[in-house]
């Protein structure tokens, strides 16, 4: 049974790998309308990140110098994370130079590429499973919205990016560390002193709406109780 589950995960992840060349992971790869509405980046910033993400992936895929390397990217607010494997330091240096030259908007380049043989498709599939686990865990908590933290997994090491408060960062790290087979969690956050005012206002409106609903439900229950009481009295009068 365990082999069947792993095989299914590999098949799903492999289909993603084959369609995306070396850029296969990270929440920056897919952004839904619902996610965008809760993202702390502006629409323009999201578009810039997605465009850079795609451009870097295409750059690596078409470069013969990187044929023996396996590279993943994640981009958040123009901070670029590179992970993967390369045959030697010269290739890593070359990779870093072409990435830096790709866009003047890159605010930070985080190079986590290591000199070692390319990971297998099975290992990449397992990393994909870890990422999905973490993103699912993020859906089941209320400290931050899942769109606030972007996840990339490489050789069981989880990299977290996003603009969050320290409380949100610690919670995200703790949640991610609970996923199965995680070796280490690396925090690459941009820290906010406080949550954005619009989010606080939105939460306050939700609380007010919930309070009003609770008051209406209580009033409804009270009226139903009185109605039942009156019905009982009418029944008793009819019996007499």
Name some characteristics of this structure.
three-stranded mixed beta sheet, 240 residues, 2 domains, 55% helix, disordered N terminus, single chain, 7 helices, 6 strands, alpha/beta
What's the SSE blueprint?
Layout: H1 2-20, H2 33-38, H3 43-62, E1 70-76, E2 79-86, H4 89-102, E3 108-115, H5 121-139, E4 150-154, E5 157-165, H6 166-177, E6 184-192, H7 197-239
Parallel strand pairs: 2-3, 5-6
Antiparallel strand pairs: 1-2, 4-5
Helix pairs in contact: 1-5, 3-4, 5-6
How does this structure look, described?
The chain has two domains: 2-192, no CATH class; 196-240. The model is unreliable at 2-31 (pLDDT under 50). The strands form two sheets. A three-stranded mixed sheet has the order 1-2-3. It has a three-stranded mixed sheet with strand order 4-5-6. The longest helix has 43 residues, at 197-239. The chain has helices at 2-20, 33-38, 43-62, 89-102, 121-139, 166-177, 197-239, and strands at residues 70-76, 79-86, 108-115, 150-154, 157-165, 184-192. The chain is α/β, with parallel strands linked by helices and 240 residues long.
């Amino acid at each position: 049974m365990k082999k069947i589950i792993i095989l299914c995960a590999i098949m799903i992840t492999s289909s993603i790998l084959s369609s995306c060349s070396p850029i296969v992971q990270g929440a920056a790869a897919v952004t839904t309308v619902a996610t965008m509405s809760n993202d702390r980046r502006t629409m323009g910033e999201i578009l810039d990140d997605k465009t850079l993400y795609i451009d870097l992936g295409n750059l690596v895929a078409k470069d013969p110098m990187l044929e023996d390397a396996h590279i993943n990217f994640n981009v958040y607010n123009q901070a670029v994370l590179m992970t993967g494997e390369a045959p030697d330091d010269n290739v890593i240096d070359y990779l870093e130079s072409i990435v830096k030259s790709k866009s003047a908007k890159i605010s930070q380049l985080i190079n986590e590429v290591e000199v070692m043989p390319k990971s297998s498709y099975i290992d990449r599939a397992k990393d994909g499973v870890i990422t999905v686990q973490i993103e699912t865990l993020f859906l089941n908590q209320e400290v931050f919205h899942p769109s606030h933290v972007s996840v990339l997994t490489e050789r069981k090491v989880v990299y977290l990016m996003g603009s969050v408060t320290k409380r949100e960062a610690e919670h995200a790290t703790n949640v991610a560390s609970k996923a199965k087979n995680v070796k280490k969690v690396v925090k690459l956050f941009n820290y906010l002193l406080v949550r954005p005012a619009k989010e606080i206002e939105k939460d306050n409106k939700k609380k007010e709406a919930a309070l009003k609903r609770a008051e209406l439900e209580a009033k409804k229950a009270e009226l139903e109780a009185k109605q039942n009481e009156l019905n009982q009295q009418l029944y008793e009068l009819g019996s007499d």
